């Protein structure tokens, strides 16, 4: 609840700090008194909410399960949402009032909205009265901060009962993770004499405690250590109590009583433990550690005595896990399906002699196990519950369909909810709403980092942390923290190792979704028997069957994301007419040909996604969207933006392009969008992709000093000087794409100075003199480099060899020579190398020791390369080769006489030609893929040579050049 107040407080502070009152003073005379009252009242409400938030943060941990407190919190949440409505209504009316137009139009609109301004005043008075009542209710029902809350005392044993159950699990019941157990056993029993600290980390319920207990209770270990202790930590602990618990378990009872441990303070307790452990070999397990602070004291208590002491930590947090010694950290992952199924059957069908699933139940049992996604706690709890039920298909079907309700309401499944909620309750206010927001994405969805970050910012969930840090960077910190807390899992990284997509465990998503609905934060609709959305929800995501909804909520809605692509445009236009205060609108893949008229009246809109639609024209009335920060019209039919787009001074990211050649083997593989007028006012712009260059525009780019990602196409030599000058004024530029206007245009980039923060560079077009510009010698931070149609006369590989951080190197038609050489120690971090369409290239030399981290090698359209590069056999890390449109002689050799060169490569894909129709049917961007042609070639039975197959369509490429 404190996070709701946190977000509203930030919005209130923002509204008071914008200076809009000054601007409106001369614009809306009729509302002057209302605006003055608004400022005064908002400051009062801000003060009340600040104190209330602090109070709730202190009390909430003590009042878990207190129905009176929960009911009071609901009332607080309602008031907070009412305040948010007032602030957003104020912003809406303010935007209307300062909207450009004729004097008579403004006066008409002002007169029309006087009643609305006056209504704001009435609403503020009502809110102030309700806040006073909330304080009175709090006192009336005794909601306060107690010294020792009975609720808190009941929470602690409940946490311990789950841990105790895992601790008491019989080893014969443990399924899976045998390799983890063996590794930990080896670490514990190894002969090294110095103290060793090891850790297991992973999400709640994944089996950390179970594995640790199997080691701790092992008789072999009992005999190997003179003393041992098992301590389960709570989220809130007293270090003195913790030290006493450890002492009591380690010491003989007589020694413990004689030492008078109960009367000691913190320092004495640490000293007493040091003295006792100094001459003893000990094993101590710290189960479910929540923060690193506890180790500041225990590190001193657990003395280094060179007798082989061992400390094992289990935790959900990666930073806590890294308290362990180097290379003594194990990340515990979910069980694979086979082991998950085996564990489920052991629990669910324990009454059956063979413990096998009856055939009539198998479809529903499979779905339940799939839903658990390998989480042992959930598998055991649900399987045990079902073991007491009749083995009737209808009953199991009903249970599966009600699984979400069962998790939230069935006392026998409280274990799952309690364990998952512990992670949620540990989140700070700024992170809690961001995490709950992730539950809006569909089940099993790959959540894209870029989209999630932009949505968080547009929703107002990301705080500013100083001038030197962008909100995008802050949001990235949020994502990192959620993954380190094992609440989100990274499932895909780009070639540089940066997380690209994430996934939320189904059960975690289910619990988070329940809480998000309860707190009216958001509602994700997927046609589960609901035909209307309550008006109090702030965000609505429609996954499917949108037309079955009869009611979509009302004015309180702030976000509308439509994922159902089968909805007719008429339904969309009608739905949008009901939402006035939207901050986020996503119509990606929607069946619309024009921008709905109501969109340009959404003055509070921060995020608009019209990508992959049939929209052809952006109206001039877009100038009304003065708060817009993110505009995405990729893969639409828009070729030119209106002049008025340059008035959107809050715009941070503008995406407007279409990919035509999915293999990127042509100069015009990506279209550019024209932006008329002066873009100097777009000073907040950080990403511009892609823009069609002209002399005025490239000169104006120098005013966009916050730019981080820029794509400029149709560049001519006649204004290259202006472009180079503008680029040097962008100190934060990290991603750059420059493309010439045609194949005959020659670009002279000698005057382009080194861009110190450039990490990704794509240069397409013929270079002056066939040589690289001098700035290439200073690209020290470059990680991804793509050169197309450069017309280089000299082997450029040596010019890149100093790029020690280079991870991706792609060259398409960039070199006119016959030979490329890769010497030893060059490109130590290179992960992907693609060489394409170099007409004269007939030899590639790779020395032993070159590209020692290379995972993927793509050879495309090298018509004169008839020999398989023999040096490939030195690259033992090579996992995949993609051979497209290569000479027949090359294909014959790689399948025959030269097979020995590539026998260590597990995946080899060969394609006869560039079938562009097949490329359109199969694209590297997953959301456009209609068919996948992925062929993995296992080794022959004798393990010597991989099978190599031919195909008629292009291969899926693992790397997609993205800006």
TrEMBL record:
Residues 182-351 form the NB-ARC domain. Residues 20-98 form the Disease resistance N-terminal domain. InterPro entries: Apaf_helical, Disease_R_plants, LRR_dom_sf, LRR_R13L4/SHOC2-like, NB-ARC, P-loop_NTPase, RX-like_CC, Rx_N. GO terms for molecular function: ADP binding. GO terms for biological process: defense response to bacterium; innate immune response-activating signaling pathway; plant-type hypersensitive response. Keywords: Coiled coil, Leucine-rich repeat, Nucleotide-binding, Plant defense, Repeat. It comes from the Eukaryota. Residues 557-860 form the Disease resistance R13L4/SHOC-2-like LRR domain. Residues 440-512 form the Disease resistance protein winged helix domain. Belongs to the disease resistance NB-LRR family. This is Disease resistance protein RPM1. It comes from Oryza glumipatula.
């Amino acid at each position: 609840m404190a996070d709701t107040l946190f977000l509203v407080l930030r919005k209130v502070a923002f509204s008071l700090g914008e200076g809009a009152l000054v601007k409106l003073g001369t614009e809306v005379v009729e509302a002057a008194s209302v605006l003055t009252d608004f400022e005064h009242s908002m400051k009062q409400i801000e003060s009340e909410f600040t104190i209330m938030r602090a109070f709730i943060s202190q009390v909430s941990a003590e009042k878990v399960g207190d129905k009176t407190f929960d009911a009071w919190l609901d009332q607080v949440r309602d008031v907070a949402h009412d305040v948010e409505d007032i602030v957003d209504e104020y912003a809406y009316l303010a935007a209307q009032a300062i909207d450009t137009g004729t004097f008579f139009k403004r006066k008409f609109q002002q007169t029309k909205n006087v009643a609305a301004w006056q209504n704001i005043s009435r609403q503020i008075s009502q809110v102030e009265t309700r806040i006073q009542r909330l304080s009175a209710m709090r006192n009336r029902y005794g909601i306060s901060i107690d010294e020792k809350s009975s609720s808190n005392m009941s929470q602690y044993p409940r946490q311990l009962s789950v841990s105790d159950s895992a601790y008491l699990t019989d080893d014969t019941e443990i399924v899976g993770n045998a390799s983890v157990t063996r590794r930990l056993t080896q670490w514990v029993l190894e002969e090294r004499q110095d103290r060793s600290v090891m850790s297991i980390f992973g999400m709640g319920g994944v089996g950390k405690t179970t594995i640790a207990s199997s080691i701790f209770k092992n008789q072999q270990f009992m005999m190997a250590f003179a003393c041992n202790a098992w301590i389960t930590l709570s989220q809130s602990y007293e270090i003195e109590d913790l030290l006493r618990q450890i002492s009591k378990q380690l010491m003989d009872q007589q020694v413990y009583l004689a030492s008078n441990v109960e009367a000691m303070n913190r320092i004495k307790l640490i000293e007493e433990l040091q003295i006792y452990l100094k001459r003893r070999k000990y094993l101590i397990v710290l189960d479910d550690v929540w923060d690193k602070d506890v180790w500041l004291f225990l590190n001193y208590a657990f003395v280094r005595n060179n007798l082989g002491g061992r400390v094992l930590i289990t935790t959900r947090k990666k930073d806590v896990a890294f308290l362990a010694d180097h290379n003594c950290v194990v990340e515990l992952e979910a069980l694979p399906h086979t082991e998950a199924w085996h564990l489920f059957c052991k629990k669910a069908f324990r009454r059956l002699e063979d413990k096998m699933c009856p055939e009539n139940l198998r479809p529903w049992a499979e779905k339940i196990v799939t839903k658990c996604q390998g989480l042992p706690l959930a598998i055991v709890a649900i399987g045990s519950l079902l073991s007491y039920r009749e083995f009737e298909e209808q009953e199991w079907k009903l249970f599966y369909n009600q699984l979400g309700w069962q998790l939230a309401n069935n006392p026998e499944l409280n274990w799952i909810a309690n364990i998952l909620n512990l992670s949620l309750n540990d989140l700070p206010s700024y992170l809690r709403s961001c995490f709950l927001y992730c539950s809006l994405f569909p089940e099993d969805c790959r959540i894209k980092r870029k989209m999630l970050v932009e949505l968080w910012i547009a929703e107002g969930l990301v705080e500013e942390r100083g001038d030197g840090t962008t909100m995008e960077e802050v949001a990235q910190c949020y994502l990192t923290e959620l993954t380190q807390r094992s609440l989100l899992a990274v499932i895909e990284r780009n070639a540089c190792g940066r997380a690209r997509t994430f996934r939320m465990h189904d059960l975690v998503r289910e619990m988070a979704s329940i809480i998000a609905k309860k707190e009216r934060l958001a509602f994700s609709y997927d046609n589960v028997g609901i035909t209307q959305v309550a008006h109090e929800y702030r965000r609505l995501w429609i996954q499917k069957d949108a037309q079955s909804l009869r009611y979509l909520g009302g004015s309180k809605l702030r976000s509308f994301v439509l994922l159902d692509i089968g909805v007719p445009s008429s339904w969309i236009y009608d739905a949008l007419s009901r939402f006035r205060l939207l901050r986020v609108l996503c119509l990606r893949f929607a069946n619309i040909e024009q921008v709905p008229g109501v969109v340009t009246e959404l003055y509070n809109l921060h995020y608009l996604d019209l990508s992959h639609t049939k929209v052809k024209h952006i109206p001039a009335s877009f100038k009304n969207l003065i708060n817009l920060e993110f505009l995405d019209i990729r893969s639409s039919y828009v070729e030119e933006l209106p002049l008025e787009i340059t008035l959107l001074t809050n715009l941070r990211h503008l995406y407007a392009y279409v990919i035509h050649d999915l293999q990127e083997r042509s100069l015009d593989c990506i279209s550019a969008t024209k932006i008329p007028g002066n873009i100097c006012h777009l000073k907040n712009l950080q990403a511009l992709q892609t823009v069609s260059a002209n002399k005025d525009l490239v000169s104006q780019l120098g005013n966009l000093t916050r730019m981080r990602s820029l794509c400029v196409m149709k560049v001519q030599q006649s204004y290259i000087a202006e472009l180079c000058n503008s680029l040097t004024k962008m100190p934060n530029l990290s991603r750059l794409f420059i493309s010439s206007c045609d194949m005959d245009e020659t670009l002279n980039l000698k005057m382009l100075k080194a861009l110190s923060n450039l990490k990704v560079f794509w240069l397409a077009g013929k270079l002056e003199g066939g040589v690289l510009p001098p700035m290439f010698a200073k690209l020290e931070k470059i990680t991804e480099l793509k050169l197309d149609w450069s017309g280089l006369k000299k082997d450029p590989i040596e010019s890149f060899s100093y790029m020690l951080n280079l991870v991706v190197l792609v060259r398409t038609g960039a070199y006119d020579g016959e030979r490329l050489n890769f010497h030893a120690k060059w490109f130590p971090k290179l992960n992907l190398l693609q060489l394409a369409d170099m007409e004269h290239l007939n030899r590639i030399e790779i020395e032993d020791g070159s590209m020692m981290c290379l995972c993927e090698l793509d050879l495309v359209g090298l018509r004169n390369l008839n020999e398989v590069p023999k040096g490939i056999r030195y690259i033992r890390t090579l996992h995949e080769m993609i051979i497209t449109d290569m000479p027949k002689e090359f294909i014959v050799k790689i399948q025959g006489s030269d097979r020995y060169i590539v026998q260590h490569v597990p995946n080899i894909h060969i394609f006869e030609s560039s079938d562009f129709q097949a490329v359109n049917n199969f694209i590297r961007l997953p959301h456009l893929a209609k068919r996948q042609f992925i062929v993995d070639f296992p080794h022959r039975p004798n393990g010597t040579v991989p099978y190599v197959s031919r195909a008629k369509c292009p291969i899926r490429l693992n790397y997609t050049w993205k800006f």
